Amino acid sequence: MVMTNEDSLTAGLTGSKTIISGYGSAFYQRDFNKQVSTATLERAVLFVGHQFSDKISVFTELELENAKVEGGVASAGEIAMEQAFLKFNLSPRQYLIAGLFVPRIGILNENHLPVNFNGVERPIVEQLIIPATWRELGVAFYGSLNRLPVNYSLALMNGLNSANFEHGSGIREGRAEGSEALANNLAVTASLQYLWKDFKFQVSGYAGGTVGLSPHGADSLGLNSGAFGTPLYLAEADLQYAKKGIGIKVLGSYIWYPEADKINAAYANNIATGMYGAYAEFGYDWLYPQHKKAQFITFIRGEILNLNASVPEPPKAIYDGTEKQAHIIAGISYLPLPNVVIKADVRLLHTGPQNPDLVINPAPNAMPYKQNNQFLNIGIGYSF
User: Fold this and answer.
1) pTM exceeds 0.90 for this model
2) What are the distances in angstroms from CA 349 to CA 67, 108, 303, 336?
3) Could you tell me if 89 and 95 are in contact, meaning their C-beta atoms sit under 8 angstroms apart?
4) Pairing of strands 18-31, 246-256
5) Going by C-beta distance under 8 Å and a sequence separation of 6 or more, which residues neighbour residue 361?
């Protein structure tokens, strides 16, 4: 990972007590089916951290998405805190954090700087199955073993809000992100990392309630309340390999939501009981071993996901073939410096067929659905 000022404060390597850091990205995308091109300043993030003592620090990240937010006007922009937590060093190998933080789930959630991943877009699986950047309010404990190259984490945080789940985006819209989170329901996450030679292996998991209503409010909708009522479970495993310019990443994740039928009956959001996603990526740095000065990486990544791998019986849910997807992304990342990247890629998309029962405006009023599409992406990114 690129060493930024934020990383330096995390590792306790800086002599300064207050650190300013940040990252950002912008991109151009061409959607060939829609024949539409868009360009946006995707995000600009400002990090400010302060070391109160050798035991206690504070970390904050303020993010602006899509360049601007206009009061009272519908806008794609957002201003949000990405992280805001206190860190308490318990020992050289253990620490505790409390506040708004990103749990250790998947590859991208913790390591989401644009210079740290290939492709202009973040992996689709880590947008829709693991909804990175996923942050919630809570407390977390991190540590590593003395005699084995093993890292671990355990966290308690507020749960998801199932009323906000949307068909087509998995559990992503159920995140509170620190904004008036319903805390009647809770969630626990845990991870285990093992480092061996040039490999890093990880497994992580999430289990939490998805109904934050009062017992009376939940009962009136036929839902189970409580800390872990109407639960959702997520499991993830991944590996990373890096040696002599070769980089390999493999990740798989599955969501099990056994009471999705009750949520659909209450909110009519057509959510599945099972969702999965996986990807594999191979990259090669053609400038290795000069990567301390510059990198030129070519890569290819294949992704599969299904946001309705299993669905409740009708009429509690309707299967949507368009949510079964395969993506192939191939492109380049040029880093003239370790903290600056210029990216370009092509993404090929194939989906399952559209379900006529979900079509509100059929052809010829609307264009016929196409199961194949192509996207051209060009972007820049930085971190400091």
Assistant:
1) yes
2) 27, 21, 10, 30
3) yes
4) unpaired
5) none
Report how far residue 141's alpha carbon sits from residue 95's, in angstroms, rounded to the nearest whole number: 6
Structure tokens at 240: 């990373």
Q: Which amino acid is at 281?
A: E
- Please write the tens of the pLDDT for every residue from 108-121: 999 999 999 999 99
Q: What is the pLDDT of residues 19-70, one digit of tens each?
A: 999 999 999 999 999 999 999 999 999 999 999 999 999 999 999 999 988 7
Euclidean distance between CA atoms 213 and 219, whole angstroms: 9
Q: Hey, is 336 helix, strand or coil?
A: strand
DSSP string, 8-27: HHHHT--S-SEEEEEEEEEE
Assign residue 115 the CATH number of its domain.
Answer: 2.40.160.10
Structure tokens at 85: 């937590």
Asked if 241 and 198 touch (Cβ cutoff 8 Å), the reply is yes
Q: What are the structure tokens assigned to 305, written together?
A: 């996901």
* CB proximity list for 72: less than 8 A, separation 6 or greater: none
Which single residue is written with the structure tokens 């599969």? 304
Which structure tokens are listed for 89? 């060093």
Range of the domain at 260: 5-383
By CB atoms closer than 10 A (0-12, 13-18, 19+), residue 101 is buried
Is the pLDDT at 13 greater than 50? The verdict is no
The domain tally of the chain equals 1
Amino acid of residue 106 = G
Q: Which residue in this structure is represented by tokens 């009323």?
A: 163
